[in-house]
Amino acid sequence: MSDLGKAVGHHQAGRLAEAEAGYREVLAAEPGQPFALNLLGVLLNTTGRAEDAVTLLRKAVQLRPSNGEFQNNLGEALRLSGDFAGALVAYDAALAALGPNPAVLGNKGAAADRSGDHRLAETCFQEARRLQPDVALHHFNMGTFLKRQGRLDEAKSAFEQAIACAPAYAAAYNNLGNVLKDLGDIRGASDCYRQAIQHNPRLAAAHDNLGSALSALGSSDEAVSHLRLAADLAPEDAKTQNNLANALKQAGDTDAAVASYREALARDPGLRDAYHNLGNALAEEGRTEAAAATFDEGYGLTGDDGLLFKRQTMLPVIPGSQAEIEQVRSGLAGNLREMAEKGLSIDNPLRQIGHTMFFLAYHDQNDCALMGQAADLLTSACPDLNYIAPHVAAGQKPGRRIRIGFVSSHFRTHTIAKLMHGVVGNLPADRFERFVFNLWPGADDWSSRMAASGDHYIKLPGDLRLARERIAAEQPDILFYPDIGMEPTTYFLGFSRLAPVQAMTWGHPETSGIAAMDLFFSGKHLETPGSEAQYRERLIGLDGLPTCYERPVLPDGLGDRSRFGFSADSHIYLCPQSLFKIHPAFDQVLASIAESDPLAEIVFIEGAHKHWTESLQARFAATSDLLAARTRFMPFLSGEDFIRLISAADVMLDPIHFSGGNTSFEGFATGTPIITMAGKFMRSRVTYAMYRQMGIDACIADSPEDYVRLAVETASVKSLREDIRSDIIAAGDRLYNQRGPVQEMADILEAEGRSR
Q1: Cβ-contact 81, 114 below 8 angstroms
Q2: Is the pLDDT of residue 706 over 70?
Q3: Are residues 144 and 58 in the same domain?
Q4: E strands, 560-630, where?
Q5: CA dihedral (229, 230, 234, 236) positive or negative
Q6: How wide is the angle at C-alpha 678 spanned by C-alphas 676 and 683, nearest 5°?
Q7: Where do the H-state alpha helices sit in 132-185?
Q8: Which residues pair with 502 in a beta bridge?
Q9: Is 23:2 a contact under the CB 8 Å cutoff?
Q10: Interval 367-410: pLDDT, tens
Q11: Assigned domain for 654 exists
């Protein structure tokens, strides 16, 4: 066997080092050996040395210019080295020599796509498919191209054809899963990823994608397992490590997530997503200094204005004092001005920012100016947010029925679904065609109930552009956002004009600050004179609460204090709210209750992060040693146990400055008295408005001192407490299943929809 033949044998057997040495020996003896030049060039190209490969392959082509295989190989090396124009010239030479060759056409299509000539790319891929319709690779290439172009339905069909040609084609299953994920079908995507893994258990990308999909569906343990395996299969892949960290965070293991994000950055110090995600994780945990340092480092290395925006708009979860709130707000106003003067550039706000100024609402101040500043800054920084749906731009008028869409990420077992189910279901079907757009990829009882409440149920993809295009395709006359501000996707969707009328309501009781949002539905008891100044939207005050909330079904075992370890002699003051609702001004009220009632036990639910609980405990200790001693934090409870806990309390404490909502609806179903004090903002008046609707005022305080008095009297005097409990239960028919506000809302929405 010749020396060249031996080198080829090594090459075919995968012994690349031996093959390279053999080719070089041949060329040392005969520098112009064209086949050795060609084969060594191919080897170098496949081992990441494209520029060196180009040098050798040019020599081979010069020696054999009519050799189509040599020309194709040169084209591949040029394509991988980034010289797409040169690659196209080489592919044309190959096609001139070989005729209409499907493999060369596929390569040419890839180069044309990278060069930006998408029409030529599509022509090449289609011709390859036509010439060899039974070859899976050609359908795969077309599917990959179409997905990049955002033509997802066509891409789905192409990958399905690839699989039909090659049923064990793991990469095609993986890519089909990616298309289904973008279409919003996360469960279908998961099935495809599982098929990919079945056919190639070592395909790291499929484990990575499956883990991310399972995390989105809430299957945290399995998600982490697949992502750990992906990280093992691709130990240098920083993106996989970042995705593992995301799954760990979703699973509630923030410490492990933070460590994994740091590992991703160690592997790739320029990985922007890891800076975003690490900073977000630290900020959500309340570790603002560490988060700020992460955003600063990432911004310094990448120049990503999204990191700067997050750094400059970050808010504490548990403020240490009123003074800290004032300092934070003053700094925020200045930061927004500075960023506006500098000018930001944001391409993908969901990816680069991915948060809202959620915690601003808990400061008990008018946030309209700050929210408007932030929204106007983002409108300027990301012009793509200002998308106008074609049917809106065309001035399309409503048909016989108003097409109204409801958009949320929380149409699942969540407060928002409970608030909105009766609204959607009770809008007159002869006047409204109702679309429920759900951004949550999973399925549960409440998502099923939301689906059944409307005429159409549509799962939206998580990608912002795809989601708004899917909404716009239904040509809504009105788009209704129940909870703008609670999470970033609906917040950023709200900037686009996807319907002639866009409305929101109290899911997050705060103005959006967005110029494209037209209406805010509230209630007359939720607002005070002059409240219009708190909203950028036009405020609509309904006669009742803007919901049709179903009376909760109560579990058995109500009133059992021993279930929760409560002493029979203690007076249980329960405040089962998220800890960020506890304003510093409430601390002294709680301390006064502890001082006034020697039997007081003040009960909270632990925060979503340990740091939240520790921060609030530290603040209580700074306020009063007695308060710290009388306070108990209980672990998170399931739905039924949560209601049992409420029923076991002597009274519930509604935080001043930020009232309960769903918790108060559930509390009143058990008859438990709730002490409340209405403030000047809607977010402090929800429980008060419920009492007004029921016609009960025994637990409404008019000052902090009165709040303490009412709480202690109600908890201490059983006969008084039982009388109030009876009154609350008797008045339930005036609180639950109220269709009047929905009918009022329907009249307003129809008038607005037809007047635009």
Answers
A1: no
A2: yes
A3: yes
A4: 571-575, 600-605
A5: negative
A6: 100
A7: 136-148, 152-165, 170-182
A8: 479
A9: no
A10: 999 999 999 999 999 999 999 999 999 988 888 899 999 999 99
A11: yes
